Amino acid sequence: MIFLDEPLSTEPKLLNPLTLAYMGDAVLEVYVRQHLIAKKGAKPHLLHRMATQYVSAKAQSRALHILQEELTEEESWMVKRGRNTKSGTIPKNADPIEYRNSSGFECMLGYLYLTGQKQRLDSLIKRMFTIIETGEKA
């Protein structure tokens, strides 16, 4: 994962939760792409289709539900901030509750990334991969 040494104008904790989710979405996308290329090395169209099982609101919401007990107090707070922020629109193919949960999950990931907590970010995303790939239940 690439970490740029570019200071933010605002403390990450004070950023708008949707801004953190925007960053978290991009970070997760990079992790998923690297994971799939390392695992499958398939053609881009197939990789894109495979990636949807990891980046969908449904998958992220389910993973968050299972991970909830493993989160620190600070991580849980970030999830709540992201989940409770109104985004304006919800994609047609997403359940509103799952979409809000996935926004919370992405908010937390964005926060971990922007605060340089790479090991924790790695750990949570690898755990998410395991949950999705094994069909682990809560």
How are the SSEs placed, and which strands pair?
Layout: H1 17-39, H2 44-55, H3 57-67, H4 73-84, H5 96-114, H6 118-134
Helix pairs in contact: 1-2, 1-5, 3-5, 3-6, 4-5
Structure characteristics:
single chain, 138 residues, mainly alpha, globular
Summarize the structure.
By secondary structure, the chain is mostly helical.
Please describe what this structure looks like.
- It is a single chain.
- The protein has helices spanning 17-39, 44-55, 57-67, 73-84, 96-114, 118-134.
- By secondary structure, it is mostly helical.
- The chain has a single domain (13-134), classed as Ribonuclease III domain (Ribonuclease iii, N-terminal Endonuclease Domain, Chain A), CATH 1.10.1520.
- Helix 1 crosses helix 5 (96-114), helix 3 (57-67) crosses helix 5 (96-114) and helix 4 crosses helix 5.
- The chain is globular.
- The protein starts with 16 loop residues before the first helix and ends with a helix.
- The model has no long low-confidence stretch (mean pLDDT 91).
